[in-house]
Amino acid sequence: MKPNPRSTAIFAVAKANGLHLDVIYADKDNKDAHEALLKINPLGQVPTFVGSDGYVLTECIPIALYKVTSQSDTTTLLGSSRRDYFDILKWMSFANSDFLPSIGGCILPLIGRSPVIRKNPDDCLRALHLNCKLTDNHLKANRYLIGERLTIADFFVVSMLAGAFMVFHKVLHTDYTSMTRWFYEVYNMPMYKDVAGDLPQLDLPFPTLPAEEDTSTQEKLVETPHATAAAA
Length: 232
Hints:
Distance between the termini: 40 Å
Number of helices: 11
Number of strands: 2
């Protein structure tokens, strides 16, 4: 399976539920496959799901949730209450819209590619530290993202973080110990690892912020996501 942070959790849930998926990799280099993708999803985004009945679903979060809910009425992966469900949505949305772009914005320049969303590597690094700090603080008091209960949010967010732990593992292991503990516990569960495979450990330099920047600013900004949510 080709690695894709937005798809790995979907494959893991599908396999655990005994659901066979016919996977088509719609790379732009594969002209026929890419043209077929554009017919069902004009934005050309992956993953895109097409059911046996022709039902088309786009965007990774609803696809992941659909694969959980459509296969089992008794699944525990959606939590035990409506509040759990909304917390699951919160973490999945946070990983997809905040974590993944910041990780990509730090890694892509190291391999000679330009970030697609956040263009400034320093902004990406600041965001990555903020996101890691927020997640690490939460996991100091919780075994999983939704308290003591493993949910689809754990697999989904681990999938988004795999690239960071592949490239920046030395820093993450040292600075964000609670997040690291949780990441490897979830990653090494057979349900997930059977699909994701072993995680390579690369040795690329971790980017740094300008020496003159006041790092205390990062500490003050850690509470910003909570303040914003409360204000909204």
